[in-house]
Write a structure and sequence with these properties.
The complex is a heterotrimer. By secondary structure, chain A is an alpha+beta fold. In chain A, 31% of the residues lie in helices and 20% in strands. The longest helix of chain A is centred in the C-terminal third of the chain and has 19 residues. By secondary structure, chain C is α/β, with parallel strands linked by helices. The chains are: A alpha+beta, B alpha/beta, C alpha/beta. At the B-C interface, helix 2, helix 3, strand 4 and helix 4 of B face helix 5, helix 7 and helix 9 of C.
Chain lengths: 333, 143, 285
Amino acid sequence: MADGMKISRESLLAALRKRGALWAPNDAGHWTAVEALPELGPIRPRRPLKDLFVPPRREIARWKAGAGPAEIEPAQPDQTPGSVFGVRPCDARALLLLDRAFLQAPYVDPHYKARRESLLLIGVACQPGSTCYCGVFGFGPDDKDAVDVMLAPQADGFVAQAGSTRGMEFLASVAGGAAVPLAAPRPGPRPEWWTGLPDPKALYANFDHPIWRELGISCMNCGVCTQYCPTCQCFTVDDESFKGEIQRLRIVDNCQRSDFTRMAGGHNPRQVAASRLRQRVLHKFSYVPTQSPGLVGCTGCGRCVDLCPLDRNLFADVFEIMKRINQEAERVA
Amino acid sequence: MSDQFEPRIVGFLCNWCSYAGADLAGTSRLKVAANLRVVRVPCSGRINPLFIFKALEEGADGVMVSGCHPGDCHYISGNRYAKRKLAVIRRLLEWVGVEPERIHFTWLSASEGARYAVEVGEFVDKVRSLGRRNPMARQGVAS
Amino acid sequence: MNQSLREAVKRLFAEGKVKSVLGYREHPLSKAVVATLITRPEDADTFIFDDRCVQNLARGLTRDLPLPVGIVVKGCDGRAVNMRITEGDFGREQIVAIAVACPGVKADGKNFDERCQRCEMHVSPLADVTVGDTSTLPKPEKTRAETIAKIKAMTPADRFAFWQKAFEPCTHCYACREVCPLCNCAVCVTDQNAPRWIEQTAKPSSNLMWHMIRAFHHAGRCVDCGECQRACPEGVPMHLLDLCLAEDVEELFNFETGVKQDGKWPFLLFNPEDPDSWLGGPHRG
């Protein structure tokens, strides 16, 4: 619709409660079930939205130890209808990258699919901070393309617009909305020194460049960036048991861990710390765009920059790499 | 009263002195509280703190470790290293909130069968009087 | 300070005493202070030292660096390097310690870190070169005992509840492990799965087990640099547990971590005079 819809917090909450469960970020920045609409900060919460779709610990089956063959109970996908309030454009766009991993036929993850289908995404526009970089990826703090509803906070409610058909249907169920003109969407922020996304092929062609080692000096591969990244979704399967009760789990894994690529027999192709940093950069900025043209494996949420204990900046890394590659190419030319 | 719970104690006994002492209690037909499950280790110095922590996590209400008297260790000095390790293990458990009554470290020689029976009995009584399971005990596979 | 530091580093290169140096620089783009390794003397002009230099560079000491390696160290950092030498990771001759007179650092940009307020060793005990004025360094404003007093005063039940709440947000990201200069096992105990001692998903039992074992592995080895707690994205106060055990180690064994590199460390030794009262508990004297 060309206009937005002015709605009150109360009528929004009533419509959301009618739909089912309600999720929102709490004060600690974790996604939790809530009864009321919380006050939100200016930007995305500490934990990424992926927690609700790719939880760190997901049961996929359980059985009991005992004599005779075990009866395995697969976990049922959770179809409980609900809504998520406080979704930011960067986290919502990140779900599109998770879709790429979990919804591609023929290997569709039933748990992920069930949550994607049952949770309505209620976006809230941001007041971008100094480490917000969504502008690098061509969208901004008001972007509605990956959410069902986008809300612009006002003093006395929200101005809402639909981002999808199901969002439009939802807004029709919210009482007392009045049409109001919409402000033009704001451009997204980017670092002041940023000159553009890197060339995926040039990055990969420089796989053995010494700059990776130089950049790797200041990285400790602690993996916080990957843990909190809304697009990272590598997982492993493990069993946990207690007193004869066994659960098979899908748990998050982390390519920054030193043993991520360690194989039976001990060979580890990414033994060197810098090679894991390289993996992270290449996966996001080279492999994803190469395999899925139009997509980049990052949405500029800035958590990696905020939370890195060693104050690194992945975007600065990418910038330095491309600058060096381009300088060398010019010298050769 | 059904409030009384019967504590389950895990005891790590060194093979050469303490386990032999426990054996002597048995062959002497002394009554030893059945609450104690024994794990035999070659030496008290072999104790990895994880043994004690995992025993508590798996639901033991108390943990006992017994080695040879200092100076009598079959491996000469294993128990002396154990003393230092066990001292810090106890301190850590107390910092974390496990009641000090749940942990019992002692030296028992192969001839002290009677003392073994008495110490185990007193330890079990002490743990029983706490009246509840240790807080570290896990409730289930997801907790 | 920056100028004298840069000159000292250049001198070390000129005298052939180092092949590389680990130090701090201000990143030209992000303006954040990051670790850097230089192999040419002219690059020493990027080195800085001020109260933004919170990181412990000792964790960056790996054996594939061009040796001998120089390293800029604050008091806490230098103690960590001493421990690495004590434990045999490096030979004394492979490290050149550039000790800076550190009055304290400010991770939040405003106030001195909590550990700096307690610091009794502002200058590294391992010092081949010293930079800055060491005569005007501040005295400690409080003690480690005061920091852990609130836990000491709690009953067992309150203590248990305190730590359950403290560890509840832990996501097992292991940032605390990766930034710690003393966490250097080839295979960490939590990565071992035969047997699986410590489960890696977040829940009350494994959160507690991880942090207990972590603290135990650091007993007598932790140099109170506080990096673990600073690195934690969830604000888990795991360093507090390290401090509790540090008090015990000092009391029981009269050992101050990282002051010497003589290889004498409490758990590697025993003293026949070690009293049985250490075994503690209500059954012992």
